[in-house]
Amino acid sequence: MICYNINVKISTLSHAPSPLGEGDGSPLTGTRHGSSSDILSPLPSGEGFRLIFGGRMGHFLPTMVLEIVSYGHPALRAKGRKISEVNDEILQLVEDMLETMEAASGVGLAAQQVGIPMQVCVVDITGVKDRPSEMWIDGKAVDHEDFMPLILINPKITLSGRERSGNEGCLSFPGLSGDVSRHEKVKVHALDEEGEVYDFEASGLLARAIQHEFDHLQGVLYIDRMGQAERKRLAGDLEELLARSQG
Ligand code: CO
Questions:
Q1: CA 112–ligand 1 middle distance (angstroms)
Q2: What distance in angstroms lies between residue 146's CA and the mean position of ligand 1's atoms?
Q3: Residue among 29, 2, 40 at smallest CA distance from 215
Q4: What is the pTM of this model?
Q5: CB 178 within 8 A of CB 233
Q6: Which residues is 157 bridged to in the sheet?
Q7: Among 30-44, 94-108, 153-167, 170-184, whose mean pLDDT is lowest?
Q8: Which of 61, 62, 64 lies closest to 45, judged by CA?
Q9: Distance between CA 121 and CA 103 in Å, rounded?
Q10: In the chain, what are the domain boundaries?
Q11: At CB < 8 A and 24+ separation, what contacts does 138-145 make?
């Protein structure tokens, strides 16, 4: 059991986007366009305390809303570094990411999107009623809402089922959305916020959101998976986003 002090210092990890490929020699597949912070909302837009991890651990951490980087920021093209230990810094990052996702009304957020290329993402599809999801643990159907928000550390996924096209947005592409083909079902193996291994299967919107976030952790963006027609339709908007992030 890890305990927190309410006066715990907000990690510097939360404020300073890490240099790319930090420590792991990850190849950077994107083009460097520099910081996009000039086009983003000032920080922090919200600070508070959160009863962490659905009350399972029963402690409070101070949290803050982090800056979400937009298309063109090099962190989005960096493969996330594997997390070797779920320590206080990682827990702080996770908490801040949950706060940030909530503030942005997103259903998922990857560490790359707050400028920190590490293998951690969060997903919360609570309240989405028009796009069904299913979840299974040990082959038994469970209510996915009981497991939200999902915290996926060093996740591995196995895809199954046929591919279906569906509409997606991404917090790093404000105002844009497009159709992306994804597998219907996904099997997930990850660490939770306590560093414990867990496994589950998901389908529907949940499976889609997990595939989208998993891609972020590899430096892959949803536009990479769009068909030619969608890419063409969004080309002008994407150029505009890039130009803004180049500042
Ligand atoms: Co995204």
A1: 9
A2: 23
A3: 29
A4: 0.78
A5: yes
A6: 188
A7: 30-44
A8: 64
A9: 16
A10: 12-246
A11: 138/199, 142/200, 144/202, 144/206
Ligand 1 center from residue 86 Cα (angstroms): 23
Residue 68 makes CB contacts below 8 A (sequence gap 6+) with 40, 100, 104, 109, 113, 114, 171, 172
| CA distances (Å), origin 207, targets 32, 60, 116, 159, 243 | 31, 30, 24, 9, 32
As a whole number, the mean pLDDT across the chain is 81
Q: Is 85 a catalytic residue?
A: no
**Span from the CA of 214 to the centroid of ligand 1 (angstroms):** 9
Fold category of 12-246 in CATH? Peptide Deformylase (3.90.45)
Which of the residues 67, 95, 213, 230 is marked catalytic?
A: 213
What is the distance in A from the centroid of ligand 1 to the CA of 108?
Answer: 7
Strand 197-203 and strand 177-191: the pairing is: antiparallel
Q: How many CA atoms lie within 13 A of 82 on its CB side?
A: 6
